[in-house]
Fold these 4 entries.
Entry 1:
Amino acid sequence: MTDDKALVRQILAGDMQAFALLIRQNERLVSHMVGKVVQNREEHEEICQDVFLKVYEKLGDFHFQSKLSTWIATIAYRHGLNAIKKSRISFRDLPEGESYQDHFISTEDPGAQFEEKDWDLYIEKLISALPASYRLVLTLYHQEGMNYQEVGAVTGMPEGTVKSYLFRARAMLKDKVKESMQKEDNYEFRGGITATD
Amino acid sequence: MSFEEELQQRIEQGKEEAGLDAKAYYTVFSTLRKRQPSSLPATFADNVVRVLEQRKASASRASEYWLIFGGGFSLVVAFVVAVAMSGFEPNAGFLTGIADYSGLFVFGIGFVLFLSYMERHLLRKNRAV
């Protein structure tokens, strides 16, 4: 926090190298935030750039009510949503009144596309098929190390919703991984019989 | 709290659990904990700073133009107000006095053009030699 304060002070004094440092410290966070909301690669970098320009513009109004990274993530989230509204990029989120579970990747058909032995790759593909709100909550909590309160502050969701989304997203991922593990075990078992035959 | 929630909590806390559900959760948590790299180019920070500096420069140029325009406009307004308030009437002044010497003006202009022609065609040629 103290380092962040010194950094902000330097930037406000006109030190552009300090601002470049702030960007380098937070570009991964912003890239993930924008990437979770906007899945259009062409627009991704442009929106990330706009986020940091906005951060520079609004930095004078930031008084450390929260962590600097949380504040930047909030701007990134709102900017991502605005970009979607402006350019009408498709935003796949929770369908109203029904469970997203029904719309999640079916292991029957495209499951074969995944190299299931590479779990990281497989789970990353599963994550990218989750609704945007679930992806966001997962990223902020697990990748950025934010707590429920901070995730809520960034996304504007109540703490209970954050907990619930996090739980449901992980449970959905677990179910798919479990299915794949079972299929893999069955395959190995059948393969074993063939080998002994 | 459901069994599933408890299981997630215990695994997150690093406790050892058995069973296929737990195994699947361990795999999921392991991937979730791995830090994903940024998909932005290595020059991203420098690019943003460059764009910002360009914007600042164009904003300061725009404010200079506004200053020049504002200054010019104020001068015109001040002139109009001064003329209106002082009852000033334009007067050609000394120009009316020398109106009879138009031949002299025509000669002067012709002479200046002649000198300019001589300078261009004779003196410069000589210098080049």
Entry 2:
Amino acid sequence: MNTNDSSLKNATSENSRHVGLWWGLLLGAAVVGLLYIIYSHNTAPRELDLSQLTEAPIVGQLAPDFTLYTAAGDSITLSELRGRPVVLNFWASWCGPCRLETPHFQAFSEQYGDKLAVIGINQQESAATINEFAAEFDLTYPLLLDKDNRINQAYAVFGLPTTFFIDENGVVFDISPGAISQAVLEDRLAKLIKQ
Amino acid sequence: MYPFISLGPIALPTKAVIYILGVWFGLAILEKTAAHLAQNWATLYSLATNALLIGLVGARTVFVLLHWQIYAANLLSIFWPLNTGYDVWGGLITGGVYFFFMMRAKQLDYGQTADVLTPCLLILFFAIFLADYLAGPGYGAATGWSNLSFHPVQLYEIAVILVAGLVWWAAHQRPLFAGYSFLLTAAVVAFGLLLTTPFHGNAWITSSGWYLAQFIYLFVTILCLLTIIYFTTKYKQDK
């Protein structure tokens, strides 16, 4: 056997070893991947222990609880709405984007009925202004007064409008700062109600 | 978690800030990688920038098409508001398709271009996961643990990207063939995301309880490894 034959044999052997390693890696990945997929399928989603959560206006935590009043004097407490998703929209009558998105909230409130609670929280305006706004847009969902801005601050609302999507457990699911289009609202609600 | 970054009286949208930083840093890395791998950095930089812009338009277009019934009633809402209403996968596919065809038109080598793009893509994914963690929709699945309520799934995904970055670094030092570091990195990312999928609180699940994304990730992993085997065998035979 001459030198060329020997180096060719070595190269062939190295080649086979390399390719063998890759096949081994592929087989390993396929087996581990499949076993993991089966394991994931069999593992039931864990129950959420709400007592572990704290109240904070951030995704994954409990939405801060509040009791506020409508212009007519009816009270609404957020925690009493547990069991169905809540859309919390912070708004004011002088806010242009708020006026743009308000009809969408009304439409979805009508469409989903009891399956969804749509609530508007005003920022420091009078009951008369809120009533005018409700009449202008034919709103039937509750608009709450926050005269001292306490709840706006509790939700760290930086600018209007801001919308919080809260799941049926009272956990913040998504936060949408700025104007929200009807399509985006539908998209978020579909995810919120599906989950 | 935190939709705004508060700098004194100024409140910046966290997601937008992270995306912009990700794009800026990703393009800077692309330029450096292209020069390092002796590729035409100016062409690649220009293509990547255009692909990002086209991807942005594509993300909006796909979202509009998916919700066309609503947009048809008010065509102006296609153009405003623009702060939300994008389909990430629509954007990635649109940008990717544009990049692929332009790569063909400019007769760039697929493998070498993919190698150059890899770190840039990793940084973009890093930015997407970080933005999702800090300001994004949804959260991880419930843990059932006393000290941690939800899985910080986006942090797991960031860990996958960091591991993939290390793999890319090692692979690009000793490439077996053009495109090798891209394929190996893609396999690591796909396999890592296969592992993290069940920790998503809102992952797509079939009626029989299977996570659809896991099958796609497994397919991508196997496809990348098979391609590596094919080219390794071919490269060794050619040698």
Entry 3:
Amino acid sequence: MSDPLDSRKPKDLPTGSGLALALLYGLFAIAASARALVQITRDFSDAPVAYSLSALAAAVYIIATAALLKRAHRVALFAVAFEMLGVLVVGSLSLLHPEYFPRATVWSGFGAGYGWLPLLLPILGLAWLRYNWNRGPHGPESN
Amino acid sequence: MHFILTWAVFTVTAVVLGWSSFRAIRNEPVILKQLWVALAAEVLLLAQAVLAAVLLLGEKHAVDGPLFWGYQVTILLFLPIAGLVAFAERTKWSSVVLAGAAITVAVLQWRLGVIWG
């Protein structure tokens, strides 16, 4: 008898650095989702733009985590590139125009509230995807 | 309540962090003895959750409930996940993951102390 669980063998998951990167993204998916949930349910009207950006950041981290775990490298590339753009744009705007952000988001000040990891994370992600591009089951070599 | 427990958690997670970083640098995976130390940290975190529940139910202390329990439940997840990774991933990357879990637990424990007040 084959059980649905049998098809989810650990070998389907990434290994080594890919697993570590996916878990790091998972950590930020949790952190950003929790932050967005608290902000939006408690006082959304205080800073709708900042809080919407928190929710967007959470969604991007969740997509990146899922894509890395499923080794869908093309989806991961879109998510990580968008994340890079987001942290650079929101980080710059939060310093140049702090009045747009009466409340902080994960990406404010280039992620200063999280030890600048939100800035480091997409750099790590892009470097990892570049280095591992032809090794995943969904890389361009499958075209 | 958090003072002694917080420093106990900091001490044990510092041991886990130092030991797993050392093994990661030497290209070695997590070994079972490290998981026993991680388990000790997890037991401290569980004891803290029980103690917090008792103090809050007895109305000896007031906190921002959802925020506190959000952190208190989340902090329990990281070491068991790193433990599962240690069994599945027999390379230095299990050491990297355990070191990351130890840092995360320490940061969340610090936040919990601030929230507790």
Entry 4:
Amino acid sequence: MELRRLLPDDDRASFTCGDAQLDDFLRARAGQHQFKYRASVTYVLVDDGAIAAFVTVLPGTVRREDLGPSSGRLPPGTLPVLLLARMGVSTARQRTGLGERLVVKVLGLALDLARDVGCVGVVVDAKAAARGFNDRFDFLWIDHEPRSDGVAKGFLPTGTIAAASTV
Amino acid sequence: MVRVVGAVSRACARGSPGAGLARRADRDRGLRPEGFSRVFEELVREEEAQAPIIRRLSLKLVERAVDVLGELFEAAAAFSPPSLPVDEISQLLPATDEAIAPLLDAPSVAILRLELCTFVAFDLVRDPSVEELATWARLARGAAQAAAPYVARLAQVSRTGASSDLSADVVLTEQEFARVAELVENPPVPSARLRRMLGRGTA
């Protein structure tokens, strides 16, 4: 199975992961974001010409909602991160380790980003059903209060990724 | 344009269902939110230049009030026409996240914000009396209270995975930001599982 960047000719219309929003994103938006705007990159696992799983990443920033003077030892301004924005595994391939391969790829990208331009960690928005999956990668949940939509914001510091990668 | 948009806003606020706004949002989707903001700011500047000083102060107060009241009033204007009884308002509100999501993408939110700002500003500029505005605000208050549980959900939906757009800007509260900063400064020791995954070179 090949892990590579999405190509313009990849068959995105046939992909289905059971989440209509994710399916629509891959079909209608992922290519536009990557090929037209160059705002994000989608990596795909391709098996026999078909997309079996995908993950979309983009560089982003984390900042305080109140941009006044920082208190205590907080760093000023914003912090650069890598956003794990979307991920889906086709219904036929779920629970076969494809999601893990994609996340490992993303963590490697974060290390590259940190080395080349700066990146303090990976951020993910996880629905309740996906929290257990993200727990396997040591994501830490940073929401101060539970959100009404059940989505939790996970953060994995680059320092932790680097420590895991050098052992 | 102030008069046109303001008149439309007034009609919407007084009884047209929120779906009308959503349809218009669809029609105007090609325009960027930043474009709307700029247009509104330019309109306010034009009005400021021509208005007596007391009206200029009013405009500033309105801008500030709109900022403070924010999303509650937006949602009230969009989904809860204040001239309807609360139970009818509730019937108009979408019941599921999936139903809400298409109505609240970023351009729609921007349009609704513009609608409300323009509506309020237009009324004050056109008529020095604030009675009409106060009446509208009183009506909207009840609707906003009824809509409050929905507003919380709408606010979350519009900022999270429901939108097809990707946002590179992660905004955190001070406590959340402090937590991230602490983790950056003192990254936790990786678990054995993570070490195994990253050590075996599956990437």
